[in-house]
Design a protein that fits this description.
Blueprint: H1 2-15, H2 20-38, H3 43-51, H4 62-76
């Protein structure tokens, strides 16, 4: 569950306390915990919807960019990470993604 993921992140962060991407990922997981605790399907949308925006970073971290891209693909494919769904079936599901931090 989400608590175990956070605990693993905290243990890893103790080994690499100056690793900025790890800190951002851990923070995103902690901020997402209430929503993910209620519904585990929220995890990918929480990460891609702004928790890992890196808005205050001077340059994007490739590790985080990859995580966000994977989360978006996962969300758009209804959780089927094995293959991308393109075509008529992909329009049957709408997915709202914030483009700014404010609604």
């Amino acid at each position: 569950g989400v608590i175990e993921v956070i605990r693993d992140g905290q243990r890893f962060f103790k080994l690499r306390p100056n690793d900025r991407p790890v800190r951002l990922i851990l923070y995103a997981q902690q901020m997402s915990a209430p929503a993910v605790g209620k519904d585990h399907r929220e995890y990918s949308s929480q990460l891609s919807g702004g928790r890992l925006s890196m808005i205050f970073e001077t340059k994007p971290f490739p590790e985080i960019v990859k995580i966000v891209e994977d989360a978006e693909t996962y969300s758009l494919n209804r959780g089927d990470a094995g293959e991308e769904r393109i075509g008529a079936d992909s329009t049957s599901r709408s997915w709202w993604k914030p483009v700014t931090r404010n609604l």
